Amino acid sequence: MTINSINGSFARMLSSTATQTAVATPLKVFYLSDTSDYSLVVSITLMVTLLCVCMVIGHLFEENRWVNESITALILGLFAGFIVLISTQGNNSHVLQFDEELFFIYLLPPIIFNAGFQVKKKQFFRNFVAIVLFGVIGVFISFGIIAAGSGLIFPLFNLEGLGIRDFLALGVIFSATDSVCTLQVLNQDETPLLYSLVFGEGVVNDATSVVLYRAVENLDLSEVDALAILQILGEFIYLFLTSTLLGIAVGLLSAYVIKKLYFGRHSTDREIAVMILMAYLSYILAELLYLSGILTVFFCGIVMSHYTWHNVTESSRITTRHTFATLSFIAETFIFLYVGMDALDKDKWDMTEVSISTSIGLCATLIALVLVGRAAFVIPLSAASNLARRGVGTEISFRQQIIIWWAGLMRGAVSMALAYKKFTANSAIYATMITCTILVVLFSTVVFGLLTKPLLRWLIHPHITDVLEPETPKVPRVSSGDMNISLLEDGEPAHHPNATSKDRVLDRSSSTVHHLWRKFDDSFMRPVFGGRGFVLPFHRSHNGEVQDSRSSDHFDHEG
Amino acid sequence: MTINSINGSFARMLSSTATQTAVATPLKVFYLSDTSDYSLVVSITLMVTLLCVCMVIGHLFEENRWVNESITALILGLFAGFIVLISTQGNNSHVLQFDEELFFIYLLPPIIFNAGFQVKKKQFFRNFVAIVLFGVIGVFISFGIIAAGSGLIFPLFNLEGLGIRDFLALGVIFSATDSVCTLQVLNQDETPLLYSLVFGEGVVNDATSVVLYRAVENLDLSEVDALAILQILGEFIYLFLTSTLLGIAVGLLSAYVIKKLYFGRHSTDREIAVMILMAYLSYILAELLYLSGILTVFFCGIVMSHYTWHNVTESSRITTRHTFATLSFIAETFIFLYVGMDALDKDKWDMTEVSISTSIGLCATLIALVLVGRAAFVIPLSAASNLARRGVGTEISFRQQIIIWWAGLMRGAVSMALAYKKFTANSAIYATMITCTILVVLFSTVVFGLLTKPLLRWLIHPHITDVLEPETPKVPRVSSGDMNISLLEDGEPAHHPNATSKDRVLDRSSSTVHHLWRKFDDSFMRPVFGGRGFVLPFHRSHNGEVQDSRSSDHFDHEG
């Protein structure tokens, strides 16, 4: 696939419509008179209008249990793409094609940064081991099953031209959980444990996919041995550590600079600008250094919310909190609109030579493999982590395992990007692989996405104690509290007065590491990097009003 | 010039550096493995890092009277461009070229919207007639002088290949005041009258330039008569009115939708997203309809600050206010960095065939014409408006005229964009015109820009009463208060206790229209579109905290 720019792709989008309009009107546009420029204007207008419509629809259906913004956007995008296709009489061949660059450089970073910025840190670090287990071992298992399964089943459809490397690539493509979608279907406040497990897995997942994809591309298929596998594992550990460290370093730098130079003295805008720019810098630096930008920007978000955010003025705090959330929200909606419009990539559909029934068969196979591949690691890994935690009575219940399995089934823009990347060559079979990916993405997002909320309500809400208290509440041992799975929901103890004593004991069990960290944080980190309770002197801001940065912490992160 | 996309141009930027790096490292980047993609990552990293450095330098030099952020950015950009040129051994031929699209579609709208959003509306509308006078008649005068002057003087340099149409284009290019720069050198709070005059002129200026450029391009040079000139005027009036109406319509729509649907009930993020998207929509719709996007988005900003902003929740108010300011701030800094880096467009410099002395001569001529052209309308038009207002004692003093003249001398990205647009063809003389434009832009921004703050201090600050009170304080007549020039500074009456009684009388003089507007606003507009004092019921926001949108108006717009 030729990599096109954001505008390039936009400009291509609707180019025929634009030309028609430009001819119809006698006036010449001033700055943007060239056709490519004008068609860019047309497509931006279309996208912005659709985004506004999505917001309004999303607002009106807020109370609805089935619909969420992603699905609205996806369906609206499909609809708009259809209209465009009709109105250009099917001529927009190179129109509406997925653009990796737009996705990975502009849309993904704000979403992942915001996730790190707003994540409940205590919950996340308590489940850290389980998250890494799911995100690393899980992806390897799922990859193996999907690659092997497609390798065995696809030949039955009489397909030609697919090699081992292609099946391995399919394994990677369909193992990449869509973290954006997870953010939409799970609610951090309602189901914090599930959210932190599934979303955390999605983030770690990415680093694994980086390594796997790289490994598949560079693999010498003639000699695959234990050493090669160890090398992949080693590379993963390197990637994970360096990406995380880079994110932490940039986050700490921002905290230090803002605390030391005290930007708020002159202008809150500069403070906010520095936060936004440094957040983005962490992502793009990771890409520059061939690391996983997603991991980096996620940890940068965590550090920024723990230190930097507390070093700025009160109005900057409110602003950054909402700005990051809004940018992320717009980017998410944009992605789903885009994926929807993109589904009608006429070129690829024309190029495919297989029949409709074969297409459906291939997609059904892939979806089945995705279902099996995920079940194959969620259940054993949950069992493994339950085994380790049995004494403490904090198992992941079976109902919860179902939710974890289900909520990670959606495949999204990441899969699309990988498919477009892998199946570049202009062959019929590669076009088929791309159309299959599009169908699986649409199906999984719409069907699995639509069913998640009702499933959650059905499995969890009538049994809310399942989430908030372990099913088998044995007497907890107060012991070696590593960063382990804990079903303790420190967000909502007030709802369950009878759980308080148990909570307190559980709290102690996992509090050793936390306690050590707090001590380290208070004695070494906070004096240098600020953080909650950092004392900005009373000051006069740029516009003359006295601000006290210590007052009213609207937005208290825990831990 | 081939219109390149934001990424296209970024990708071209530094492409040679990027390739070298990509070869040097053994790892392959994952998502962004193609060279064009990687070079995009390199250039974004460079830009974001430079932006951060600009913020820090700007912060450190905040108290300095000479430096402002534009000049820092410009010099830093020049410096960075120089480093890139050196490090690629002068190979980056198509690197660092100005991109109209990036400028007009992404960077300009937030700046102008924010200006409208934060403008002191009372002051602006009081000076409306003078602003339109400067922005329309002024540009025509300046255009005439620069076109005629260059037409007469340039042939003396033995240049060949420039026709009448080119000289007319030069007239337009160098009549376009850079409103971005004005925002940086004048302070709305310190010198509100001057700010509203010079900045307001800059905005109206754009509409005039649209018409003039279009007229020059389409002019049948064989028969220029009074009718043609009338036609240009008619088209200007049409453009001005439709652009303004579109901006007002989109602004009112946003107010109505947000008030009616009450977005804040579910999510403040959606509220903010709708405001941002609709603001941008107004700009892009204007471009779609071949209107002046700058005028439209400016008036949309005014309407949004008057109605929409008051209909949202308290935290959305704080957020939008700061977000718009920050986005505008980042865009401004980016533009100056970009213009600085762009100055080293090696291709154009290589193509120029004139000697250095001729280049300097041409630039000096243009700068002289800019100086004369602006003086030629500021002084007569100020005199004309003084004549009309003599009885009320609200003349524009001579010192103030000097500031108005000086602060509008800077030429910026708009001139660059027009020059690149006009002088597309690959000829030596056209390349010379572009390098001249670059030099004039650099010189005017750095020299005129650097001198503005000291000049202001020298002319106005020791004589602050010149601004705040008329030089010849005659007894004011209380009369037909049209939207006219008034030196009344309603922002700072407290500083001048002896001016209060005069203020009160002057206030009455211009209050008739204002009074009528308030009456109309209160009886017809506010019941539909909300606005200050709009009563949102107490409500429970998405995250469960009770918010009262009526409390504590942090950010009160007047009027």
UniProtKB/TrEMBL annotation, chains A, B:
Transmembrane as UniProt keyword: yes
Residue stretches making up the Cation/H+ exchanger transmembrane domain: 59-458
Record flagged with keyword Cytoplasm: no
A single MF term (Gene Ontology): potassium:proton antiporter activity
Catalytic activity: Na(+)(in) + H(+)(out) = Na(+)(out) + H(+)(in); K(+)(in) + H(+)(out) = K(+)(out) + H(+)(in)
Subcellular location: Membrane
Gene Ontology CC annotation, any one: plasma membrane
Residue intervals passing through the bilayer: 38-61, 73-90, 102-119, 131-155, 236-258, 292-309, 321-339, 359-381, 402-421, 427-451
Keywords: Antiport, Ion transport, Membrane, Sodium, Sodium transport, Transmembrane, Transmembrane helix, Transport
UniProt record, GO biological process: regulation of intracellular pH; sodium ion import across plasma membrane
Membrane topology term: Multi-pass membrane protein
Family annotation (InterPro entries): Cation/H_exchanger_CPA1 (IPR018422), Cation/H_exchanger_TM (IPR006153), Na+/solute_symporter_sf (IPR038770), NaH_exchanger (IPR004709)
Family label: Belongs to the monovalent cation:proton antiporter 1 (CPA1) transporter (TC 2.A.36) family.
NCBIfam families: b_cpa1 (TIGR00840)
Descriptive protein name: Sodium/hydrogen exchanger
Organism, scientific name: Adiantum capillus-veneris
Top-level taxonomy: Eukaryota, Viridiplantae, Streptophyta, Embryophyta, Tracheophyta
